Amino acid sequence: MSPVQEIARRRTFAIISHPDAGKTTLTEKFLLYGNAIHLAGAVKDRKNQRATASDWMELEKQRGISISSTVLQFDFAGCAVNLLDTPGHKDFSEDTYRVLTAVDAALMVIDAAKGVETQTRKLFEVCRRRGVPIFTFMNKCDRPTRSPIDLLDELENVLGLQSSPVIWPLGNGPSFKGVFDRRTKEVHLFERVPGGKFQAPVNVTSLDDPAVRDKLDDHTYGEVKEQLAMLDGAGHPFDLKAVQAGQQTPVYFGSAVNNFGIELLLNGFLKDSVPPAPRKSVSVTVPGWPQPTVAREVPVTDPKFSGFIFKIQANMDAKHRDRIAFLRVCSGKFDRDMVVTHQRTGKSVRLSSSHKLFGRERETVDEAWPGDVIGLVGHGEFGIGDTLTTDRSIYYDEIPRFPSEVFTYITNPNTGDSKKYRAGLEQLLQEGVVQSFTARSAPSGATLLAAVGPLQFEVVQWRLQSEYSAESRLTPTPWTVLRWLSRADGTPVSANKGTFDHTKLIVATGVSFGADKFENPVVLFPNEWSTRYFTEKNPELKLHELPLEQTR
Ligand SMILES: Nc1nc2c(ncn2[C@@H]2O[C@H](COP(=O)(O)OP(=O)(O)OP(=O)(O)O)[C@@H](O)[C@H]2O)c(=O)[nH]1
Ligand SMILES: [Mg+2]
After folding, report:
1. Boundaries of domain holding 328
2. Ligand 1, from 18, 23, 43, 46: best to mutate by most atoms within 8 Å of Cβ?
3. CATH number of the domain to which 297 belongs
4. How far is CA 519 from CA 55, 79, 232, 330, 480, in A?
5. Is the pLDDT of residue 261 over 80?
């Protein structure tokens, strides 16, 4: 296959939504229909039932929620699929936002009983800003749902997104018997299978078939006829160009848990979605190179290899206890053992331990193309956002940063055994979803941790225990705001990092000082009011939500 053909058959997408809408369940069913697994697992770890491929972490299995995004690669219908299942909970949203930089399309799952929920709205906004195609799956039609017409209205009114239903439900709740494909005019009647483990048998026919009349009660049949006539008359016709530009969303209905409508969704998505899209390089100065990098769009067909790291995860494989950096290939061809430049440090690195990922499982991969996500094992020097390339004029700056909103002290109660605790904390911090700071008022031995949401701290504590056998203790702090400091003109507050003298500043009670891991000074505030007071009383200084230089 030529490079152009290889790139054209890639489909890289994320499944996004509010918590619990059914992303992981749908992912598992895609794997079942994509022939990547033979028996679908369930999200909650029930006795005698497999867990899902994407919720592999022990804590995820116990709680039945996704904590960390997962990559699943498989080949189906001629496409090389890179599917990313993301966590819905807002405390884990930093991970989800990073994943969205690595994909070319998004599948938005909506609980059809609930409609568009807050977290869906936020994630949708990010996708819209990136201009990626968005496909919509109205899930849980086996339960009583809202009227499908109302659900479409909500997409338009709440999200401002034009919708065009491709698949329409025949009834809902116990009377949900099948779906109507508006493109082929075919009815798909489904049979339930125990536990949704196997593909559901389907009977394909037409709306006028007596078998359909028999299965649907008179009310449902009449209602469906009326709705379909209304859509034909007043609905938006399907417009592939608008879909691929992210301006119209094709809408599918079904039930992930029962395998209803999954195959139609997977096939429709792979057909109408887009191949890998180019990423933008920015202009910055990089070590060991005379010219700055060049601001330009790097075509996926550019012969030089480039990609960026959007996620780091330690201990995915309990046997190896190593860390994987997830790289999205943006241009050129990846060959195992190739030598690339790590642009942030200017160093040459050989990429020999490269993997194709399937949940926690991995296998060596010798080549990869734009659109692919590969796992690079080892390389402690790689950080989130780093560019790897054979063209020194390329530098990607894709990863968004978010101010931390919650803070805690973490200590090791077991001082006799500090090695495991230190090593564990260090590795988990490298994943970059929790940050560490030193605080002048910290109790002895305590590290200040900061994150977007409190569940992240629980995860750190749980993983320290289960992955490093290290005890830890969390102690609340009075801070709710952390800011970096500069002079009013944006320059650093002191020439020598770590020597900033804060004693002459006028601050409200409860305000404290500290430093990030690069010794850049930070200020800790108990509330917004004390933050404003600081700005008023110290006009020679400026506060920043994010670090001045994006050094990692
Ligand atoms: N009735 C019904 N339940 C479903 C369906 N799909 C998923 N569920 C259930 O909804 C719950 C949440 O499903 P998940 O797949 O974990 O949802 P999620 O969106 O991945 O959740 P997070 O990753 O934690 O945000 C589970 O108990 C599923 O069994 C469906 O089609 N019908
Ligand atoms: Mg999930």
Report:
1. 279-389
2. 43
3. 3.40.50.300
4. 37, 48, 63, 34, 21
5. yes
